[in-house]
């Protein structure tokens, strides 16, 4: 399959279809609307179903229903709509239902604007809804990576029976880049869903899917199992990439779109002779904590700098990861403002020469 | 001795958690019997809502999934749209669930003509949370949140859901029935059966609104509760068929 | 080699498609490319712009702070992007529509009466292609063949009757540049 030029939002849609997702329940919101439109056009072509729900609340609950039936299913939104899905995501997590939920984040809080942002980090990585739960969060930074991670999202969802979040922003959703779709591996599709409520059709006693457990002791036991699952995920599903870190004494931590801008800034700083590199978390939950800590220790990093399109959210996880062994600085723009290569370059200079540059 | 009345295989044999005199139990039985008679238990997936019937999955002898408060029609839509079309999907919802927090979901499921069956239990109150006002509570009705009785000026007026949904072109069959005496229970069962048969026949959205009791939160005994349904609820919520046509079959 | 191009003008002037044609052409030649549109309210006020990166190496940031080339098709875009052109970079102007003049001496300014030229080749709406023709002649970043292949792709079946007039516009743009030299 050759390379094709597509918008990020459409790449998500096509990747999902290639991953065997034939059901999509959506609601329009900028800057993810192309995904909804793409699915509306493409899913009928592959014998699937697209349905525009009356709200994000309804869409996520349609997903809950479809997931109960054992199919691969997806919904997507952007920040304000994503907030509305939180109730449903908590229910999916509690009922051990697999689904993939896309957030093409935009400036907030409130209605905010439609420019790119990373200020939903807390919401997606710390549960977001009520109760003790997490959702795996994958944050691609290129469109080709969207292809890979969308498929991974479905694999993780099915393997662990959990909702998985694919987090992007307006830039990733709107931009075009050449991508190559690959055939999905067979084991991708080998998840037996004997727990699904599909009608018993003569096959054993009725099944129930529920998140309710009125007995405190048994709910605690359920929760313990959930936490056990999260431990396995933390163990197995951490994804992180580093760039020019081999001899670095300064490390920049950034994800998604910002990581791309940081790469350009790192290149410029390297040309100026600075030993600086990029650490790019790809899974935001589980967060690559021990990776960052080990790298900081091994390389005896002098300083870390976290760059985000937020007022400072992931930086908290970076600080928790290194537990004070390296100072962690922060540079962020928010409200839809994208940090420039030059701004980041200046911040890198500050790491070396202090604030006086 | 010949058995004259048997437990339906549509329900699982276990102790009920409903209060004495609560007609949720009767309605469960009617749904169970209908599913048994239609030989549909193995083809059915039910959606439990949030309210006293949240545990209905303990009773119905078919696959069940449990939805967030008010969202059962959306969950049912998800199930219906992805499963083979022979599967019957029903929701079982109270009036707080369906007519308050879930009003959006039910209206749009009806408007889309979702081919599902909705069992709507109207007891004019929030049972599970301890007797607060529901959108269906009657004027003057005392509840935990209307201690002086529901007043139009402050709490607005009760919603007649069947009448309202019947105005939607997408709705195929809507009937209001009651459970306050045996003849009405028999009628209720007929309506429920029709609502499932409609789904089998792919006629689209079918809902049966069933007037039901909540002795516990009405502060009445079971007998008085039946009387209250008859004297207070039925006049405000007239029984009958509000819609009965197949928009698909009629080519509307 | 790395070209960072911003094309800006009114919505409806074909800014997005111009960017798409360049991006496709770059991709066809095996280069790394990215295309990023302005979207949302920015677009409503009338100006639309697109950022295109064509490079030998993996594209880092698709967001362009200091473009090596800017193509402007109206006055507001001139005001916004003229100051951003990188020293030594190029500024292409449709001087039929842009009345402002650049005072910068550290960049190369190429004025083209693109709308008049487009009118002459048969359709004033292909002014963008006139500029693209001049642009590839000037920078040599991609070949004419790739540009045509990309054009066909971007126009799609629905608009393939516009291929020849756009081709003529490419060539007219190229020629005007050669004449000026
Ligand atoms: C989001 C949310 N809000 C509130 C509640 C609390 N709650 C549980 S049941 C219920 C009302 C149920 O009333 P109804 O639907 O009339 O059913 P009944 O108990 O009368 O059968 C409420 C408000 C909840 N579970 N979830
Ligand atoms: S509280 Fe009311 S509705 Fe709930 S079980 Fe008791 S009587 Fe029935």
TrEMBL record, chain A:
Keywords from the UniProt entry: Oxidoreductase
Protein name (database record): 3-methyl-2-oxobutanoate dehydrogenase subunit VorB
Residues covered by the Pyruvate flavodoxin/ferredoxin oxidoreductase pyrimidine binding domain: 15-198
Species assigned in the record: Evansella alkalicola
Pfam families, A to Z: PFOR_II, POR_N
UniProt xrefs under InterPro entries: 2-oxoacid_oxidoreductase, PFOR_II, Pyrv_Fd/Flavodoxin_OxRdtase_N, THDP-binding, Transketo_C/PFOR_II
Family matches, as PANTHER family: SUBUNIT OF PYRUVATE:FLAVODOXIN OXIDOREDUCTASE, SUBUNIT OF PYRUVATE:FLAVODOXIN OXIDOREDUCTASE-RELATED
Domain spans labelled Pyruvate:ferredoxin oxidoreductase core: 250-344
TrEMBL record, chain B:
Keyword Oxidoreductase: yes
Domain called Thiamine pyrophosphate enzyme TPP-binding: residue spans: 51-210
Keywords, in A-Z order: Oxidoreductase
Pfam families the UniProt entry points to: TPP_enzyme_C (PF02775)
RNA-binding as UniProt keyword: no
UniProt superkingdom: Bacteria
Protein name listed in UniProt: 2-oxoglutarate oxidoreductase
Species of origin: Evansella alkalicola
Taxon lineage: Bacteria, Bacillati, Bacillota, Bacilli, Bacillales
TrEMBL record, chain C:
Entry keywords, A to Z: Oxidoreductase
Residues spanning the membrane: none
Domain Pyruvate/ketoisovalerate oxidoreductase catalytic: from-to ranges: 11-173
Alphabetical list of PANTHER family matching this protein: 2-OXOGLUTARATE SYNTHASE SUBUNIT KORC
Protein name per the record: 2-oxoacid:acceptor oxidoreductase family protein
């Amino acid at each position: 399959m050759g390379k094709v030029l597509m918008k990020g939002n459409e790449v998500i849609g096509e990747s999902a279809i290639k991953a065997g997702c034939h059901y999509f329940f959506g609601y329009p919101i900028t800057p993810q609307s192309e995904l909804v439109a793409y699915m509306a056009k493409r899913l009928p072509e592959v014998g699937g179903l697209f349905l525009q729900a009356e709200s994000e609340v309804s869409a996520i609950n349609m997903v809950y229903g479809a997931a109960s039936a054992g199919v691969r299913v997806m919904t997507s939104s952007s920040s304000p709509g994503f907030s509305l899905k939180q109730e449903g995501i908590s229910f999916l997590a509690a009922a051990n239902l697999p689904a993939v939920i896309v957030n093409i984040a935009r400036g907030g809080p409130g209605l905010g604007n439609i420019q790119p942002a990373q200020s939903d980090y807390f919401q997606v990585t710390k549960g977001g809804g009520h109760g003790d739960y997490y959702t795996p969060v994958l944050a691609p930074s290129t469109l080709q990576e969207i292809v890979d991670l969308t498929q991974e999202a479905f694999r993780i969802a099915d393997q662990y029976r959990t909702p998985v979040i694919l987090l992007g922003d307006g830039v990733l959703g709107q931009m075009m880049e050449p991508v190559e779709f690959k055939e999905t591996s067979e084991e991708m599709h080998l998840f037996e869903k004997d727990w699904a409520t599909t009608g018993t059709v003569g096959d054993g006693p009725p099944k129930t899917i529920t998140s309710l457990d009125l007995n405190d002791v048994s709910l605690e036991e359920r929760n313990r199992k959930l936490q056990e699952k999260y431990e396995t995920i933390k163990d197995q599903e951490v994804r992180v990439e580093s760039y020019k870190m081999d001899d670095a004494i300064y490390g920049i931590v950034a994800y998604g779109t910002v990581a791309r801008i940081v790469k350009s800034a790192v290149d410029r700083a390297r040309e100026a002779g600075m030993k600086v590199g990029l650490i790019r978390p790809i899974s935001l939950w589980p967060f690559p904590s021990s990776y960052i800590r080990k790298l900081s220790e091994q390389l005896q990093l002098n300083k870390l700098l976290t760059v985000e399109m937020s007022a400072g959210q992931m930086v908290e996880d970076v600080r928790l990861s290194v537990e004070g062994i390296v100072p962690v600085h922060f540079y962020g723009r928010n409200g839809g403002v994208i940090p420039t290569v030059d701004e980041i370059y200046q911040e890198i200079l500050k790491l070396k020469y202090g604030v006086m540059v | 001795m010949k058995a004259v009345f048997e437990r339906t295989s549509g329900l699982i044999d276990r102790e009920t958690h409903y209060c004495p005199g609560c007609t949720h139990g009767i309605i469960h039985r009617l749904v169970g019997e209908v599913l048994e008679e239609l030989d549909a238990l193995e083809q059915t997936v039910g959606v439990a809502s949030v309210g006293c019937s949240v545990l209905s999955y303990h009773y119905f002898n078919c696959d069940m999934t449990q939805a967030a408060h008010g969202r059962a029609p959306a969950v049912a839509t998800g199930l219906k749209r992805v499963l083979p079309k022979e599967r019957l999907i029903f929701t079982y919802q109270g009036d707080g669930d369906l007519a308050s927090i879930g009003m959006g979901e039910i209206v749009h499921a009806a408007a889309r003509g979702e081919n599902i069956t909705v069992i709507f239990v109207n007891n004019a109150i929030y049972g599970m949370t301890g007797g607060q006002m529901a959108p269906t509570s009657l004027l003057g009705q005392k509840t935990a949140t209307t201690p002086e009785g529901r007043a139009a000026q402050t709490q607005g007026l009760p919603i007649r859901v069947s009448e309202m949904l019947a105005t939607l072109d997408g709705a195929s069959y809507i009937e209001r029935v009651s459970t306050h005496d045996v003849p009405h229970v028999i009628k209720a069962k007929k309506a429920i059966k029709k609502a499932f048969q409609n789904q089998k026949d792919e006629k689209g959205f079918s809902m049966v609104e069933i007037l039901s009791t909540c002795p516990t939160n009405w502060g009445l005994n079971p007998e008085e509760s039946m009387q209250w349904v008859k004297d207070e609820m039925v006049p405000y919520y007239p029984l009958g068929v509000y819609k009965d046509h197949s928009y698909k079959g009629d080519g509307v | 080699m790395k070209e960072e191009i911003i094309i800006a003008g009114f919505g409806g002037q074909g800014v997005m498609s111009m960017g798409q044609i360049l991006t496709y052409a770059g991709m066809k030649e095996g280069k790394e490319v990215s295309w990023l549109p302005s979207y949302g309210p920015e677009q409503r006020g009338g100006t639309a712009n697109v950022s295109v990166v064509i490079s030998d190496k993996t594209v880092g940031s698709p967001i362009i702070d200091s473009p090596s080339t800017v193509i402007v098709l109206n006055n507001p875009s001139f005001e916004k992007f003229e100051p951003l052109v990188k020293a030594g970079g190029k500024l292409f102007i449709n001087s039929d529509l842009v009345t402002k003049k650049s005072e910068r001496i550290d960049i190369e300014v190429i004025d083209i009466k693109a709308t008049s030229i487009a009118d002459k080749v048969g359709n004033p709406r292909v002014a963008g292609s006139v500029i693209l023709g001049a642009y590839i002649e000037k920078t040599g970043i991609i070949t004419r063949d790739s540009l045509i292949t990309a054009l066909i792709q971007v126009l799609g079946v629905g608009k393939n009757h516009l291929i020849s007039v756009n081709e003529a516009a490419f060539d007219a743009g190229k020629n005007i540049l050669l004449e000026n030299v």
